[in-house]
Specification:
This protein is mainly alpha-helical. Helices cover 83% and strands 0% of the residues. The protein is built from six helices and no strands. Helix 1 packs antiparallel against helix 4, helix 2 packs antiparallel against helix 5 and helix 3 runs antiparallel to helix 6. Belongs to the MntP (TC 9.B.29) family. It is found in: Cell membrane. It is a multi-pass membrane protein. InterPro entries: Mntp/YtaF, Put_MntP.
């Protein structure tokens, strides 16, 4: 592998991690409007980061099994899954409904972390089909989502949540673009 190939893969994974973390960031903005202590913000970020490691890891293992079994068809399905996920994120960003407010404590924190990391399972499935490096991928996804969650929570404490829908639309657009890249090999 050349240095250029390695850097290209790192940049791609980092951009995908940003796209996935935008959901955690935008939900964190809304959650930041709840009166939270700094210790709670720390735990929420760590929990979201762990879920953004665990969910794509499970998805990647399942994706690798599918890849060995189905080859090209699995690659097309993985790209299609990314496209559908991206479109869903973009469309939901324009939805007028308010998301239900879950208190991020105890079981509510688990539900909150699971809800913002489900999309990372699908991306992990696609990346497993694609054959991405497991440790590097999940480490980047977990770290970026944890930091974006903290930023979202802290910014949410300071401002209104007007940026939330735009962040989700941006994240969905990036996932859509990577799905197209995976299908067409661009």
């Amino acid at each position: 592998m050349t240095l250029e190939t390695i850097m290209s893969e790192l940049i791609t994974l980092f951009i995908m991690a940003l796209a996935l973390g935008m959901d955690a960031f935008s939900v964190g903005l809304g959650m930041g409007l709840i009166k939270l202590r700094m210790r709670q913000i720390l735990y929420i970020g760590i929990t979201i980061g762990v879920f953004h490691i665990w969910m794509p890891l499970v998805g990647m293992f399942i994706g690798r099994v599918l890849s060995d079994t189905f080859g090209t068809i699995a690659t097309l399905l993985g790209g299609g899954l990314l496209i559908l996920l991206g479109v869903q994120m973009v469309l939901s960003s324009f939805s007028k409904e308010e998301k239900p407010l879950i208190t991020p404590v105890g079981f509510g924190l688990i539900v909150f972390a699971l809800s913002v990391s489900l999309d990372s399972f699908s991306v992990g499935l696609s990346l497993g089909i694609y054959g991405a490096k497991t440790f590097l991928t999940v480490a980047i996804f977990g770290l970026v989502s944890m930091v974006l969650t903290w930023i979202g929570l802290l910014v949410g404490k300071r401002v209104q949540s007007w940026l939330g829908s735009y962040s989700e639309a941006l994240g969905g657009s990036i996932l859509l673009a990577f799905g197209i890249k995976l299908i067409f090999g661009l």
